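hiii so um. not sure if this is the right channel but i have a protein structure encoded as tokens and i wanna go backwards to a sequence. like what aa goes where. can anyone help
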């Protein structure tokens, strides 16, 4: 096999790896949206579907890991190629953790059940919308190797953090006057934490995009 055909083979395999990762990210993003809808509408069936569907995302991560290891073993990649594979593995790990957060939100929805929400479901979905925008942009930035989009995504993490702090303070303030709703309040606080973590994982992906393109590790939250 000539060097040119070897290179072409490697590029095709790397493209397939990125396509698998995009498929995994799309499933994770869908799971996050569905978990939030389940919480808002108190839809237990939808929540259970999110929980049960996590295995598909885990299977995709295993497939990505196996394909990456085969690429390293068979293709003898050079340093820049190894960076591509390394970042793909790191991004898949971040996506898998996002999917775990979707499952956690769905479980919180199940714990709350049909109990009347102690506060109108507006602020928490707004926070989730910001986090989901970050998820979408971080994946786009990875796929297109767009540093500008990656940095823009990471800059929004501070806004999510501020919303998280504000919502936690508000929710915990409800407990003294609503002791019978303590379980729900704690679950909603957990949901806020899960959303904040989704934003953090998006920022981590953005940082990996910068590393992929420049070869430099940069803390975009500094």
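sure thing!! here u go:
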């Amino acid at each position: 096999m000539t060097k040119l055909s070897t290179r072409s083979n490697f590029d095709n395999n790397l493209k397939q790896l990125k396509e698998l990762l995009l498929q995994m990210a799309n499933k994770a993003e869908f799971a996050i949206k569905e978990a939030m809808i389940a919480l808002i509408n108190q839809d237990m069936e939808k929540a259970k579907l999110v929980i049960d569907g996590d295995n598909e995302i885990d299977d995709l991560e295993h497939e990505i890991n196996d394909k990456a290891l085969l690429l390293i073993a068979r293709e003898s990649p050079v340093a820049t190629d190894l960076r591509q594979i390394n970042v793909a593995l790191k991004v898949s790990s971040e996506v898998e953790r996002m999917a775990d957060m979707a499952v956690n939100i769905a479980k919180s929805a199940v714990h709350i059940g049909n109990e009347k929400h102690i506060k109108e479901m507006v602020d928490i979905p707004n926070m989730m919308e910001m986090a989901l925008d970050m998820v979408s942009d971080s994946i786009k930035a990875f796929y297109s190797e767009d540093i500008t989009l990656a940095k823009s995504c990471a800059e929004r993490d501070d806004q999510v953090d501020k919303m998280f702090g504000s919502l936690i303070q508000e929710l915990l303030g409800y407990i003294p006057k609503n002791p019978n709703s303590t379980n729900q309040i704690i679950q909603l606080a957990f949901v806020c934490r899960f959303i904040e973590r989704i934003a953090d994982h998006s920022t981590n992906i953005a940082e990996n995009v910068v590393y992929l393109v420049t070869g430099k590790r940069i803390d975009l939250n500094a």
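oh and The first helix runs from residue 3 to 41.
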